[in-house]
Amino acid sequence: MGHFYKSPILIARYFPLLSLNSVPDCSLSSCRPVQGFCFPFLTPNGRRSYASEIDQIGSKAVLITGCDSGFGFSLAKHLHSKGFVVFAGCLFKDQGAAGSQELDNMKSERMRTLQLNVCNSQEIERAVEHIGASLKDPQKGLWGLVNNAGISTFGEVEFTSMETYKEVAEVNLWGTIRTTKAFLPLIRRAKGRVVNISSMMGRMGSPARSSYCITKFGVEAFSDCLRYEMHPQGVKICVVEPGNFIGATNLYTPERIKAIAEKMWKDLPETVRKDYGREYLDEQITKMESYCNSGSPDTSPVINSITHALTSSSPYTRYHPMDYYWWLRVQIMTHLPAAIADRIYIY
């Protein structure tokens, strides 16, 4: 888990405001999820106080992308339970996938699934037309857009093909931008919310995750620029930066990790294979499996953060649903000189 938690002296040296007694026990069994806060010592229990909720939730509609499984699927059900009209965009709805079928089987007028591939401009245009026509009062617009659809992979720079970089960016970054641009007119009419799902890896780099990190860094920059532009329009832009929730999203199974690695090895230039050797790749597989196994299986901190962004009268700019270890690591990696942060975590 990095050298920092093994050295109270380092904590005292670099964070004098944190007493040794305030450093949490970060064994995997005891880490408490942290929702939407900046510095835990500023508020009791490390949490901000939540402002009052918006009025008339039941009259408001929200579009969520990536609802086939994971965060999107859970969020669609949760927002429906809160009273929202939910448009659940599903990549595999036209294939009769289990996620969209389960949402359809709710038989609720407030749960509406639609085929939506964020890489397909025509599907997005059809979604805009369908949702606009489905709203009780289109002139009042669409209250919320949650850009949740995303994919992930792993592999060091020399091991990652340009096709993989482009594929991940097409969904995570360009898909977010493409969908947001299409729905902004409806969001502006409602003076509503855009919630972009980024990651702690949108704030800090990580070995073997460059294809994912660069897309989430891009989502962060896009969200900041959009927030500045939309402020005069009364539209709020929020970013949710989850920690390690791979255990809850099923993005990686041991079989998928091995499949990715095998394809990566097969496609490598012979020079790279000879220089690194197969043993090096096997070590990377083991590290990735360890990271996945350490992820939280509980999505509720992320779901609660997104819900707050959509329902609070004063939502936060950024939410950080992650355990204390990852929260503190993000602060160190983004606030300390790189030479010190690298020494703690990388070298």
UniProtKB/TrEMBL annotation:
Organism encoding this protein: Chelonoidis abingdonii
Protein name: D-beta-hydroxybutyrate dehydrogenase, mitochondrial
EC number: 1.1.1.30
Gene3D superfamilies hit by this protein: NAD(P)-binding Rossmann-like Domain (3.40.50.720)
One Pfam family matching this protein: adh_short
Localization (cell): Mitochondrion inner membrane; Mitochondrion matrix
Signal peptide: none
UniProt subunit comment: Homotetramer.
Family: Belongs to the short-chain dehydrogenases/reductases (SDR) family.
SUPFAM superfamilies in the cross-refs: NAD(P)-binding Rossmann-fold domains
GO molecular function: 3-hydroxybutyrate dehydrogenase activity
Record's catalysed reaction(s): (R)-3-hydroxybutanoate + NAD(+) = acetoacetate + NADH + H(+)
InterPro entries: NAD(P)-bd_dom_sf, Sc_DH/Rdtase_CS, SDR_fam
CDD domains: type2_17beta_HSD-like_SDR_c (cd09805)
Assigned GO CC terms: mitochondrial inner membrane; mitochondrial matrix
Top-rank EC class of the record's enzyme: oxidoreductase
Keywords assigned by UniProt, alphabetized: Allosteric enzyme, Lipid metabolism, Membrane, Mitochondrion, Mitochondrion inner membrane, NAD, Oxidoreductase, Transit peptide
Gene Ontology biological process: steroid metabolic process
